Amino acid sequence: MRTPLHEHELMKVNPLNVYHAFAGHWKCDHCNATSNAVQFPFHCTICSFDLCASCAQIEENTLAHQHPLLFREANRQLHENQGGHWKCQVCKKVGAAEACSYHCRTCVDFHICRSCFEPKQHPVHVHKLELVDTSLLYTECSGNWFCDICGSQSRPWEKLAYHCSECRNFDVCPHCYLPLVTPLHRHVLYKANSYNVYAHFNGGWKCDHCSSAHDNPTFDTYPWHCQTCEYDLCQMCARHSDELRGFSFSRQPEENPWQIRGRLSSPGEYDLVPTSTTEKGNILAVPESTDNNKCIICMEEPKNATIIHGETGHCCSCWACAQVLKQRGDPCPICRAPIEHVIRQFNA
């Protein structure tokens, strides 16, 4: 490519090949931004000049969206009308702290953060996975697809998946793609295909928490796997540890996890208001229990955080639990709407 920022022609290269001695780390010679091996620079073979995609202003044609995407500083572009805030279409995180995103000039409000967009080697598969819009990839079936890890079918609005271009029909839902944070282990865990991770055992593996053995694993019995120390957790242990913190693995929006766990009372329980009678025979209502002010997640700390979604929010949890919900990409525990951001709640 040619650019007015440099006199020679630039080529997009793999930084691991050019800067092997630095583990693929490099710096843009125009904006001085540093990048790792994931981001490919536009490189000059004559004078080793490097340019990042944001400075090069190159739009990439990708299967992740119907229009070309441009990697650029999203918060600078949207600062005037949105206060620098933008939301990733995949993980739903608000990216005010992350400067750059893959942005669509046509749709304006379409953004994908760098960690969600760029292809990665993932423990769920032997090849790299890239983000795709399944409505563009599977036109013959209206974009419908199945996750090859959990086996669940996509819902009408779930068109983004992580796809293997080499296998062509291997797809992973963002739920299985995202890491699991659990108090049972110090590292993050990923849902993994044990036939790839433990090929020498024909896919067999053992849970390192309950010691349950899985000799012929299926979709439902694939492990949550640690890439660092090969720690494995079965679905039951992962679910139990999460429910202790108040999270749900369920993908069904019509289910209310708090009622399933018995934290909501059955209809009619509040039909009668507790009362007491004074010495003079007057009937007084008993003050409500202070448990109503407790976090519905951990049931210990006070409710001091509001979960924001759209123009509304729910104050239902403590700050720590709300932060974990947001980081996990879980929906609001009250209305199941995607969490945009979390704020501290102060009652005057």
From TrEMBL:
InterPro entries reported in the protein's UniProt record: C1-like_sf, Znf-KKT2_KKT3, Znf_RING, Znf_RING/FYVE/PHD, Znf_ZZ, Znf_ZZ_sf
Name any one Pfam family assigned in the record. zf-C3HC4_3
Keyword Metal-binding assigned to the entry: answer is: yes
| PROSITE patterns given in the database record | ZF_RING_2
Q: Supply the alphabetized keyword list.
A: Metal-binding, Zinc, Zinc-finger
Q: What is this protein called?
A: E3 ubiquitin-protein ligase Mdm2
Question: What Gene3D superfamilies does the annotation carry?
Answer: 3.30.60.90, Zinc/RING finger domain, C3HC4 (zinc finger)
State the SMART domains in the record. Answer: ZnF_ZZ (SM00291)
Q: Which GO terms describe its molecular function?
A: ubiquitin protein ligase activity; zinc ion binding
Q: Which residues form the RING-type domain?
A: 295-336
**GO BP terms:** negative regulation of apoptotic process; protein ubiquitination; regulation of gene expression
